[in-house]
Amino acid sequence: MTHHDIFDSLTRNAFDFLERGISEFDKSPKYSVIHFCAAVEMLLKARLMKEHWSLIVSKPDQANLAKFMAGDFSSVTLEDARARIRDVAGEDIGDDAYNSFRALANHRNKMVHFFHNGLDSDDKAKAQIVAEHCRSWFHLHRLLSRWNGYFHDFGSEITRADRAMKGHRKYLTAKFKALKPDLDAARKAGNAPKTCSACGFGAAIPDALDDQIASLRCLVCDHTETQVELDCPHCGESVVIATEGYATCEHCGEAIEPEHLADALTDHDAVHIGIKDGDDRWEPANCGNCDGYHTVVRRGDHYFCTNCFDIFDGIEQCQWCNENNTGDMEFSFANGCGHCEGQWGQVKDK
């Protein structure tokens, strides 16, 4: 069996667990949680497989190919899987996604180690599980879309799971109806609820940063996200992008990336005037959280990263390379920033 065969088998097994996790929910919510969580973890491990098979082993330095091929090894934890995807593949899955997967794993652990009496008939507990499923699938679906180059052979499985999740959300209908007074009150206060990207209900209350950027929290599933509204750089139609700066236009199918958002969100006139007046705070900045290069743009008194969608109160200049960055640049002359090694790095290379 080749490495490709193992990747293919692992990924197909993951989607089998995912479909079981969705379909078994009504009759066996406990096993639904266990299977759904297993699917998430297997797909993250499949991504690691595309870097190197040893990254799936809990201790890569002790990895043995023969034992790996025979399935005789301890696999990586969720926390370590995130760290290796970030440090080896250079792709952080993000705090929101990790926290969602972690919450699902914690729920799974309770299901495995403790008996939940009456879960099959506990509508409140079942609604919580569906909410966790919705949040986790939202983030997992986005990752699979970002990793399309690795998972392109599984498009039908992804579409089938997404379709099944839409039916899965019917368990949250009662909660959505019960929230009508709260949603009406928010609407009257000028905070008209928007459609939640995770559960699909119009229950996400916006907290606007400005006319294009808003943070939202869904009252139904507790999903939180930041949305950016802009005109597609390819077709000109209005689109809404959530959570991160990578998306596909629903109108023309073209890819939208952080540099497109940076251009759309930049006040070019203000930048021109600011630079002319010697105010370099209007120039593009680098993100200290995601290491995005020139992905941070100024929006009034705030700074917004078009890659990871984090919002900052200010930026600082690297004392060595003079690049604008988010984060603390106090020791940057010696240590550098995310895009330079500082004085120590230059001395070390000599």
Number of strands: 11
Q: Mean of residue pLDDT?
A: 89
**Low-pLDDT ranges:** none
N→C terminal distance:
47 Å
State the helical fraction. 40-55%
Strand content: 5-15%
Please summarize the sheet with the most strands: 4 strands, antiparallel
Tally of individual helices = 14
The computed structural class is alpha+beta
Question: Which H/E pattern describes the elements?
Answer: HHHHHHHHHHEEEEEEHHEEEEEHH
- What is the rounded Rg? 23 Å
How would you write the strand order of the largest sheet? 1-2-3-4
The shape, in one word, is: globular
Oligomeric state, counting identical vs distinct chains: single chain
Can you lay out the helices and strands and say which pair or pack?
Layout: H1 3-23, H2 29-49, H3 65-69, H4 78-87, H5 95-113, H6 123-146, H7 148-151, H8 155-168, H9 173-178, H10 180-188, E1 204-208, E2 213-218, E3 224-231, E4 238-242, E5 247-248, E6 255-256, H11 258-265, H12 268-276, E7 296-299, E8 302-305, E9 311-312, E10 316-317, E11 324-325, H13 332-335, H14 342-349
Antiparallel strand pairs: 1-2, 2-3, 3-4, 5-6, 7-8, 8-9, 10-11
Q: What can you see in these coordinates?
A:
By secondary structure, this protein is of the alpha+beta class. The protein contains 14 helices and 11 strands. The strands form 4 sheets. Strands 1-2-3-4 form a 4-stranded antiparallel β-sheet, with helices on one face. Strands 7-8-9 form a 3-stranded antiparallel β-sheet, covered by helices on one side. Helix 5 crosses helix 6 (123-146).
